[in-house]
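Quick one, T. Sequence first:
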Amino acid sequence: MTRERLYLYDTTLRDGQQTQGVQFSVAEKVQIAAALDALGLDYIEGGWPGANPTDSDFFAARPKTRATFTAFGMTKRSGRSAANDDVLAAVLNAGTPAVCLVGKTHDFHVRTALGVLLEENVENIRASIAHVVAQGREALFDAEHFFDGYKSNPAYALSCLKAAAEAGARWIVLCDTNGGTLPADVGRITAEVIAAGIPGDRLGIHTHNDTENAVACSLAAVDAGARQIQGTLNGLGERCGNANLTALIPTLLLKEPYASRFKTGISLAALKTLTRTSRMLDDILNRVPLRSAAYVGASAFAHKAGLHASAILKDPATYEHVAPELVGNERLIPMSNQAGQSNLRARLVAAGIEVDPKDPALGRILDQIKAREDEGYAYDGAQASFELLARRELGQLPDYFEVKRYRVTVERRKNKYNQMVTLSEAVVVVKIGGEKMLSVSESMDETGSDRGPVNALSKALAKDLGPYQQFIDDLKLVDFKVRITQGGTEAVTRVIIDSEDSAGHRWSTVGVSPNIVDASFEALLDSITWKLVRDGAKPA
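Structure tokens:
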């Protein structure tokens, strides 16, 4: 059976940039565009040329892509021709092969927001699309507030679409701009649009996630006949975000009936880079990746319950709807005080540790986990620390180095500009192969801002580890979580650190102490030690 072509349109760089707190630099936009193109998206919407200096500069420096690069703008304003509208001209002057113009299709918005006659708005749409086509560009029309408009006045909403179609628009995109339309209505209305004369292979869908239904609404439109989906990486976007392409892409490629019915520009090989691409975006945004994110989250294939872990050992399909490696993710068997032998063995196997099921060390490891979690540790979210604990009990943990002492000082003082600033300084002394090594580091970053005592400790510890330096030069801390918890009879501080290396590997470690610095240092030590073990470093 010949599969139908389904086109994927990414608007991370435009609609995604409308997320509160998000502002991409030109260099970041270039990096994201390259990643989107490598993934296999059909269209990349780069932004609105002329709307702000960053977008204008980006289009001037945009990378060459296989994907159709698209500029976004709005239909011409009333009282002037399309050829004499300077806002529209700025969009066209970006020189992109495709241009997407947004226009009103809800009579309420035409009268209230634009303040023009309904017929005048239709003519503005027609003239704008015709002008884009006359310039030799592929034209797309974003029908803003379409679903609300169709519910209010279907005849008028359809007249706006037909004006764009007659003017030569390649794609007419039905937009649920406010994100309030539910999947059943999206499917029904999309089918009615097709029945009214707009072919499905010219229809796109653009949804927002204000009811947590953006992905479902996009699929409903596809089921009804639409053949383009617009969305963003990680669901970025205005208010609650856009349809999440990070969830949609694997669903389309791996789940039925979509996998058999449609083909996209994304290969199964490219799909394996999805998790890394998702986390790259979070890294650019300085955000912690959502652990519960479908397909790409750190918990997407985590199996905590002993019953689940036991079944997973026999056949992963018992509790996994797709294999994690298909999307570049990995299976995780967390350890906690709820764990049993099944979890333990599964986790050890995943870490490459072979243990006889009758080895008494298994019982001792479980006892340690339960005792330490009573003290405040949490191995559920710190798998690297769990592995080190297990290796230590099994006698499989190499003795890389010994920390002899460390000190952290925090100083509050005036700088040369008579401003009060804080500066942290750390000293760490380690013993490696009989030789003591002293490292000193401060917490000031390249911008002159203080990053705190933990940052100073981390930099000092990783500054000079002699023969192990090559293994840790690319190590960086990406998240730092602190919780005051009740461990036993005393309140203690629990610190969980997420670390990452240049290959995109990410791991978590935990430290516990009444002192936040000690807890942090314990987690830092585990992070470095685990990377040395994983990368096969030999003790000096």
